[in-house]
Design brief:
Layout (H helix, E strand, L loop, with lengths): L1 H13 L2 H16 L3 H5 L3 H34 L3 H4 L6 H34 L6 H32 L2 H19 L15 H4 L12 H4 L2 H24 L4
Helix pairs in contact: 1-6, 2-4, 2-6, 4-6, 4-7, 4-8, 6-7, 6-11, 7-8, 7-11
């Protein structure tokens, strides 16, 4: 297991993914706080909420499926899939290694984004540091991360079946359109599963909320059941692909 994970880490290092991980958080923070004069007038709650609203519902929705999809697609792009599928521990272990590294990658994106948000808050905000706001929105980040992992297997499955970053990008664009429709109040909002990583902020239907987010009122059984169902369907599809796919 650890040898397989280490192998995946080396692949990321060789292709420069580590630098891209840092850039994702930095670029999102830049666009999320582009209006500096407006941002500086916010308190810590409103500042976090503004970033999360843009990042969770728009930016990450497009970037993460493409980023993670490329981890799986590259084996076909460089014609090394036959090696990847012939690990001694079996095809399922090969998928598990990549899936775990994908979770670690998403965790790094969320962690670095949180750190960048806090550091920039010290610079641009006029109000003093608010530890309650930091803890409240750290929980928001954690909930979004968990739901991001829950819908990840569907993106991986599409990447595996298509073996094309173009198709993965189209899928990401569809998710993005779905999230925008949710924000605008679509009547089909109950069927837009891609919004659940942004549920702690998107449900308020406002761009800025300068009070603590009552998480027990935002996350309900519907999101939990939807996330679990999407996760299981995606994982089942990925495992079947790795077991049955003919890559020669």
């Amino acid at each position: 297991m650890f040898d397989g994970l280490y192998c995946e880490f080396l692949k990321l290092k060789r292709t420069g993914y580590y630098i891209n991980l840092l850039l994702i958080g930095g670029v999102c923070l830049y666009f999320g706080t582009l209006n500096r004069s407006m941002v500086s007038s916010l308190n810590w709650y409103g500042y976090f909420f503004k970033f999360e609203y843009i990042a969770f519902s728009i930016f990450y929705t497009f970037v993460i499926p493409n980023f993670i999809g490329s981890i799986f697609i590259r084996e076909f792009k460089y014609e090394t899939a036959s090696i990847d599928f012939s690990y001694p521990n079996g095809r399922c272990k090969a998928f598990l290694n990549k899936f775990l590294i994908s979770i670690i990658v998403i965790a790094i994106i969320y962690f670095t984004s949180y750190i960048f948000v806090v550091l920039k808050g010290f610079i641009v905000l006029k109000s003093p540091i608010n530890l309650d706001a930091l803890l409240n929105h750290f929980t928001v980040f954690m909930i979004s991360f968990i739901f991001q992992v829950a819908i990840l297997p569907i993106a991986i499955l599409i990447a595996l079946i298509s073996k094309s970053i173009i198709v993965t990008s189209i899928y990401s664009l569809i998710l993005l359109i779905g999230n925008v429709s949710y924000i605008l109040g679509s009547k089909y909002s109950d069927f837009i599963y891609s919004i659940i990583p942004a549920a702690p902020v998107a449900k308020f239907k406002v761009a800025i909320l300068d009070v603590p987010i009552p998480l027990n009122m935002v996350i309900n059984n519907n999101e939990i059941c939807t996330g679990t169902f999407i996760f299981l369907i995606g994982i089942l599809g990925c495992v079947l692909f790795y077991r049955k796919a003919n890559i020669y």
